[in-house]
Amino acid sequence: MIKTITGNKDFIESLRGKRASFLLCMSNTKTANIEGITQAGIPGMLHLTPTLDAEFIAIGEVRSLGSIAETPKGVPTPALLTRAVHLLHPFREIEMLELGLEISPKLEHFKLHSFGIAPSDSISDGANIPAEEVFEKGIQFAQNLTIQSDYIILGESVPAGTTTALATALALGYDAQDKFSSSFKNAPSGIKQSVVDQALSRIGENDDLFSILSKVGDNMLIFNAGLILGLQNRDIRIVLAGGTQMACALLVVNRILQMMEGELDTSRIALCTTKWVAEDTQSDIKALLEMNDFALNAYYADFDFSLTDHPALKLYDEGEAKEGVGAGGALMYGLLNGLSKEAITRKVESFLG
Amino acid sequence: MIKTITGNKDFIESLRGKRASFLLCMSNTKTANIEGITQAGIPGMLHLTPTLDAEFIAIGEVRSLGSIAETPKGVPTPALLTRAVHLLHPFREIEMLELGLEISPKLEHFKLHSFGIAPSDSISDGANIPAEEVFEKGIQFAQNLTIQSDYIILGESVPAGTTTALATALALGYDAQDKFSSSFKNAPSGIKQSVVDQALSRIGENDDLFSILSKVGDNMLIFNAGLILGLQNRDIRIVLAGGTQMACALLVVNRILQMMEGELDTSRIALCTTKWVAEDTQSDIKALLEMNDFALNAYYADFDFSLTDHPALKLYDEGEAKEGVGAGGALMYGLLNGLSKEAITRKVESFLG
């Protein structure tokens, strides 16, 4: 039920039966305000998506808006999958990392880590991120992190995040064109490409790694690059729960290590995504992972919506939405702890009425 | 669903809902190379059985050979039962104890405890075990052991282990003839008895307890005797997950205690085996347990393959295979945690295709 993308089964099998803490990185980039760039949320309210996702996975309702984030086509947020697993086999704890939000989630009794990071600007105008500072905050967070469980599942909710990830990978010199997934079945490559081209046109010969990141990245990518490196001396295992955006955070790590002539110990890190990303013909997460100098165990949860008749969920199997809010890692957690595809499907359906 | 062999239900009921760590003792004795002595594995490859069993319970595939250990009659290893339970209700962790193997399991990310113990020789030639040293290593391991869970389930995979156990019990003066089970439905008593007779003929009047063990025992029996005694001052509960071989480890403990004029506190120890052993008419685990000076809670998991039509599994109900790789203890763990006989059966079937 867990399939291998790169590496072997051992890492993920060693997590079978273990408890995980779920950490959600929430961030806004104004890139999401560009019309048609993403369907990760409600048009005009896209900035609310991470806020609503956080509320929904934590307490099962949304407080900052009437209803849960849905795409214009009516594809419900992958937060439903994460929440379904949490109801059936709960995470040991859920914590939120606020990496630049317009609106904070309205939650009590849940740990919300704040870093004083502002939402980033659109990469078409220059993201304007204090990249070194955000990176440092990621390192610091990892170095001081304490968890009550056996490992971390790190998810993200960043509308337009695949656009900023594509721009980042290209700006860092990776052959990444056509390798990033999209929340759309038919990715709006015209709009997306034009935004990425605008972003890349702002990069000059004198830009170093961090000045490139400050122009075309997003806070999640940069913070998580720091987090991954900051965990190097900690005895904490982490599953990066995401698709091509998490793969991009690793590409950033790779460039930083090349600059520092450092190496990455990947014995406590893996990536886990959804089947919809792993089998997506319009992107190539495996290729992105293999661009790194280091080898990494990467997996996907062999879950789809073949057991439902619900039309909104069937859209996932047709290629809409695909991943986000740690859905792939959450599904992996459920499957590793004995949940059946059927049980997860029924629970997700129950949210939709 | 858990039935009592000796003692009462209280010990096992107190473990209901608790999490267990599964520890697998793996050992080779060259006794297994005697033709027709065991069907715990593939002829000519019997030494690989513990290695393959370990790989299969940990990661669900075998790496050291193309396919999973099967007896000549096509009875699949009881590791299938242990793995099935682990998938449906995972152990908190799986760790391996390498007590003399020709080939180590090929696993990453799983704790493999190594003790520098060599495979033992055939008891027909003298097992040639440094018995006191192996015993001491068992004590030491128990004294330093840390687990992340509420109790230990200790399984074993030792091809030809019932032959060495029978020889050991007889050599130690127990009235154990016809009380040890076999992986065969119709135990090859001719061959087995002749090997046991050869082993016993090597015991002289001057042999003390440990020199007897060094001639006719196997590493698992001796190490686990140490382990059981080493746990006496630890607040760790343990379920010996096995049949007559685990009963023999207790008979060894009993003789050691008689020699030392010591007593065993059995309040944190139980034995749990399968129905196939408990109801076996050709052996008598209850009688073996009652030969000890101490009383012990012993149980069996009331599971059989009555719900399947799979011919390879039906052989278990006809008396082949019976126990091993902690199957009885694993089934007990599943049943204590709400798994149904049906769910376990379906999962085991899924491995066979």
Automatic annotation (TrEMBL), chains A, B:
HAMAP family: UPF0284. Transmembrane segments: none annotated. One of its GO terms (molecular function) is nicotinate-nucleotide-dimethylbenzimidazole phosphoribosyltransferase activity. This is Nicotinate-nucleotide-dimethylbenzimidazole phosphoribosyltransferase. Keywords: Glycosyltransferase, Transferase. It comes from the Bacteria. InterPro entries: Nict_dMeBzImd_PRibTrfase (IPR003200), Nict_dMeBzImd_PRibTrfase_arc (IPR002805), Nict_dMeBzImd_PRibTrfase_sf (IPR036087).
